[in-house]
Amino acid sequence: MNAFEFAMKMELDGKKYYQEHEAKTADPGLKKIFAELAGDEQKHYELFQAMAAGKNPDYEAVLKTSILKTTRNIFEKLSASKKELGKFPADLRAAWAKALDVEAQSEKFYREQAEKNASPDQKKIWARIADEEHKHWVTIDSVIGFLDRPKQWLEDAEWSNLEPY
Question: pTM value?
Answer without folding.
Answer: 0.85
